[in-house]
Amino acid sequence: MDEFEALLNESFEMDTPAEGSVVKGKVIAIEAGQAIIDVGYKMEGRIDLKEFANPGEAPDIKVGDTVEVFLRQVENARGEAVISREMARREEAWDRLEKAYADEERVDGAIFGRVKGGFTVDLGGAVAFLPGSQVDVRPVRDAGPLMNMKQPFQILKMDRRRGNIVVSRRAILEESRAEQRAEVIGNLTEGQEVDGVVKNITEYGAFVDLGGVDGLLHVTDMAWRRVNHPSEILAIGETIKVQVIKINKETHRISLGMKQLQEDPWDAVEAKFSLGSVHQGRVTNITDYGAFVELEAGVEGLVHVSEMSWTKKNVHPGKIVSTSQEVEVMVLEIDSAKRRVSLGLKQTQRNPWEVFAETHPEGTEVEGEVKNITEFGLFIGLEGDIDGMVHLSDLTWDGRGEDVIGDFRKGDMVKAKVAEVDVEKERISLSIKALDSDPFADAIGGVKRGSIITVEVTKIEDGGIEVEYEGMKSFIRRSDLSRDRAEQRPERFGAGDKVDVRVTNIDSKTRKLGLSIKAREIAEEKEAVEQFGSSDSGASLGDILGAALKRD
């Protein structure tokens, strides 16, 4: 009895563990999916087996194991202790995680659920939040393969009082990726030929995986020829051979090239495409200033807009050629240093002005449509899609061109004669009046300067008289009406009078005759003196003129 009393007193002296603390217990049985645990102090409790399992794993517990549990309540209605393995793990995990966070160490965990904006992660008892942006270095479309898989995480921040933990998987990947990149880049040298896999294609190029590090293959380095889009020659997942063009040790950026592994077609351009030679090419691109024509893979030349057509001026190149069209061009200039070839399209055809000059010599009659009317003449459409111009002065023999140009309309079909062809200036002069004979030339016939002709007075004016000869009007000034000053009176003449005059000038441009009665009289006097006497003979002027009159 004394011994029993001593043991009883000892048990009373032992403090019962406080609720809310972590205690050690022993598994004494496993039944109905639960583990029965003796936590001492004559207390037993039950815990579901799933609390002893990590995400994606089977419960790791057996009879006889000693485990730590969280005492939530000393005794429930059934007289059992209320305990939790999960809460004990959480407390244990927080202590461990706080230390790892302070030491900036990685922690192991498993993604086990989705929540708004990210995922939940079990860190060995504590639940953390994994933002969607921190899952991978690139956006993840399907996170299924990552679920319930043990993997390392980096703690970004944690607050034990609020029970908040934020972790990142991306930080781990970037760190390992940086190490891997540094190792791969360290083994690469500029000019080295390597194999890579196309990971992504953009408008400006493709990203190629070189075994842990990506390099950029720019579209201009894919081929010597023009590549409009990388997808023309590459596909995602394709393995290709590339050359390392440049490595930036600071940014770890790698520039790659494919065309560098091929022979540069420009090395043989001058030998293959000599100046003046004609070649077949394909239009690859059209701009405001011309069209690019591919002579062969990797060699393109520019046909400037001024070299596209003999006749179509100030026209957009797209109205002359179209993309992918096969055209014949002539090599005009080669600049190998700048990798430029100047081409001509019009040079493969004969100059239409040269052809016209050969087939239409001066005086040839042509017919065409009035294309345009300007203040200085008409433009007539001719063969070969070229125009000829009829100047105002070439419209009519009679009157002024300014007065008759109004009789013409756009679209009228007119006839004319070729007056002149200037091939260099690309000008063709036409004449409509040349279709008829020149009435002025017909009228004057054999009249020359100095000839005496008979004219008819048509009008009397203060300054002189108007006369007519073969239908042509001329004007004799007062001073030319007589040698004698007293006789220089217009009123002594009458309309219809016939008068002999001397031709002093023939102006084909103004189509006028210069006439003078005075000049005729002086000429007659001079002739009489020469024939019937001289000042040395002593004969008077009256005697000479009298003799001349008797002879007549």
TrEMBL record:
Q: Which is one Pfam family of this protein? A: S1
The GO terms describing molecular function are: mRNA binding; structural constituent of ribosome
Which stretches make up the S1 motif domain? Answer: 20-86, 104-170, 191-259, 276-346, 363-433, 450-518
Keyword Repeat tagged: yes
A single cellular component GO annotation: cytosolic small ribosomal subunit
Give a yes or no for keyword Ribosomal protein in this entry. Answer: yes
Q: Which UniProt keywords apply?
A: Repeat, Ribonucleoprotein, Ribosomal protein, RNA-binding
Q: Which GO terms describe its biological process?
A: translation
Protein role? Binds mRNA; thus facilitating recognition of the initiation point. It is needed to translate mRNA with a short Shine-Dalgarno (SD) purine-rich sequence.
Question: Could you say which protein family the record assigns here?
Answer: Belongs to the bacterial ribosomal protein bS1 family.
Output the PANTHER family linked to this UniProt entry.
30S RIBOSOMAL PROTEIN S1, SMALL RIBOSOMAL SUBUNIT PROTEIN BS1C
How is this protein named in the record?
A: 30S ribosomal protein S1
The organism encoding this protein is: Yoonia vestfoldensis SKA53
